[in-house]
Design brief:
single chain, 311 residues, 4 domains, two-stranded parallel ribbon, 4 strands, 3% strand
């Protein structure tokens, strides 16, 4: 080890003696100070709270006013929390919120920005039509709405009345409840379909459009595939139709293109692509049953689409 390293790590005998002497002096001073404090300066301290001082002064002399700092820290003092409703100035009379301007809303208690936002909201919805419309404004708190609700000259809700034209149409449709003779569904036109209660011209055209995409109906259960027909209309339709499966339009598996196959209601896009891919792999289908070789066509799907397939 080098000499300067030894000088840093090792202390000389004189240095060690000096350090011990200083530590001893410090300990002696500490012990002496504590002993003197215990023997000669011991006092019984009495702690008095500010509140107690104030109470003693008031008891001795009723003319003495309680200091401000005593009032500030008085234990018996209670504080009343200001209710949020207190900052609003509720109008004395009933009013229409569609007629108030910015300054009037500010008089009620809204800030300028809140008043402007409320007016913009009112313009965007073309005026408050009900109390609920007014409540839906984001600057109107629940407290403010509860305070103003009984004064607002608006209805609670809007009553929608059927127009005379609509009522007349409804009465006309109710009269047509029977059909003189059943009709064949796969060849029926609009005039035949509208005879069924609940089917108008629009629904009749939608049924024919779906029938064309499907290729024709094979059973009554397929009527549930038309989501635009309520259950009660389907029940009524079933009572007055017959189904001829011989006029179903079939899909030619070896010549159909992907766009036609995808549009079929019983096939998804993925299933249609898998059939075309399988046909390309085989070169052509020799049997209709080969469709089930597609990984996306299971036995249940095959049974549904089989009546529509041909080579």
């Amino acid at each position: 080890m080098k000499k300067w390293d030894k000088d840093i790590i090792n202390f000389s005998r004189r240095t060690r003696r000096g350090a011990v002497f200083l530590v001893g002096i410090f300990l002696l001073f500490t012990v002496v100070s504590y002993t003197l404090e215990v023997l000669f300066f011991k006092n019984n301290y009495q702690i008095t709270y500010i509140d107690d001082i104030g109470e003693e002064l008031l008891e001795k002399d009723s003319t003495v006013k309680k200091p401000s700092f005593v009032k500030r820290f008085d234990k018996k003092q209670t504080y009343q929390k200001r209710h949020p409703k207190d900052r609003f100035k509720i109008p004395a009379d009933e009013f229409n919120p569609n007629a108030l301007v910015k300054n009037e809303w500010m008089d009620i208690g809204l800030t300028e920005k809140q008043a402007i936002a409320l007016l913009n909201f009112r313009d965007r919805i073309r005026g408050f039509k009900t109390k609920k419309d007014f409540k839906n404004a984001f600057v109107i708190s629940n407290d403010l709405f509860e305070s103003l609700e009984s004064l607002i000259l608006l209805p609670d809700s809007v009553v929608v009345k059927d127009s005379p034209k609509r009522s007349k149409t409804k009465k006309t449709s109710q009269k047509v409840t029977t059909i003189q003779s059943p009709f064949e569904l796969n060849s029926a036109d609009v005039s035949q379909l509208v005879q069924v209660h609940g089917i108008g011209e629009y629904r009749a055209k939608k049924i024919i459009e779906f029938r064309t995409q499907l290729g024709g109906f094979i059973d009554e259960e397929q009527l549930t595939l038309m989501s635009f027909l309520p259950d009660e209309v389907i029940d009524s339709l079933v009572q007055h139709i017959s189904i001829n499966q011989d006029i179903i339009k079939k899909i030619q598996l070896n010549s159909v293109d992907i766009s036609e196959l995808k549009s079929h209601p019983l096939l998804s896009n993925e299933e249609a692509y898998s059939i075309i891919s399988l046909r390309n792999e085989l070169g052509a289908f020799s049997k209709i049953q080969e469709v089930i070789k597609s990984p996306l066509i299971d036995i249940r799907k095959y049974r549904k689409i089989k009546p529509y397939l041909d080579l």
